[in-house]
């Protein structure tokens, strides 16, 4: 059993993040009978690491909590987990497509500008023009 600062050191999470996970009841430490401090078990540390890893690959706190619940469960859950990952992959693909579109637009804008000391700028003129007005 370890205190919150030791749990933070071992998991790489901040004490604030650990307290947040406690507020969401994703991790429930024991209370030290002598002083009321939180004590984290090996299982608590394992769950905190799980949450950190899930967040690190892009899952929201809510999604990471769902995955942790499935991890804790003794029921069959592989299909549910795979579906959650498939959903996340679709979201990432849509974000990637949008970022690629924005990169293309910005590259085109950049190429249209001479970048000299002239007071007129092709980028600003194009941004003010019809191609960017979606009224």
Cα(first) to Cα(last) distance is 60 Å
User: How many helices?
Assistant: 6
The average pLDDT is 92
Radius of gyration: 24 Å
The appropriate CATH architecture of the largest domain is Orthogonal Bundle
Main pleated-sheet profile: 2 strands, antiparallel
Number of strands: 2
Strand content: under 5%
Global geometry: elongated
Main CATH class of the largest domain:
Mainly Alpha
Structural class: mainly alpha
Q: What is CATH's topology name of the largest domain?
A: Multidrug-efflux Transporter Regulator, Chain: A, Domain 2
| Poorly predicted parts | none
Order of helices and strands: HHEEHHHH
Instruction: Tell me the helix content.
Output: 55-70%
In the sheet with the most strands, the strands line up as 1-2
Number of domains: 2
| Oligomeric state of the chains in view | single chain
Describe the fold and architecture.
With 135 residues, the chain is an all-alpha fold. The chain has two domains: 1-75, Multidrug-efflux Transporter Regulator, Chain: A, Domain 2 (Orthogonal Bundle); 78-135. 63% of the residues lie in helices and 3% in strands. It contains six helices and two strands. A two-stranded antiparallel ribbon has the order 1-2. Strand 1 and strand 2 form a beta hairpin. Helix 3 packs across helix 4. It is elongated and about 75 Å long. It starts with a helix and ends in a 7-residue tail after the last helix. The relative contact order is 0.08. The mean pLDDT is 92.
């Amino acid at each position: 059993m370890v205190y919150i600062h030791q749990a933070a050191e071992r998991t790489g999470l901040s004490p604030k993040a650990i307290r947040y996970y406690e507020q969401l009841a994703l991790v429930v430490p024991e209370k030290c009978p002598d002083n009321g401090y939180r004590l984290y078990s090996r299982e608590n540390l394992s769950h905190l690491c799980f949450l950190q890893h899930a967040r690190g690959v892009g899952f929201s706190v809510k999604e990471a909590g769902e995955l942790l619940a499935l991890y804790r469960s003794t029921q069959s859950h592989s299909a549910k987990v795979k579906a959650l990952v498939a959903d996340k992959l679709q979201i990432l693909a849509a974000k990637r497509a949008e970022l690629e579109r924005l990169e293309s637009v910005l590259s085109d804008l950049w190429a249209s500008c001479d970048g000299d000391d002239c007071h007129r700028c092709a980028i600003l003129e194009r941004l003010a023009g019809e191609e960017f007005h979606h009224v």
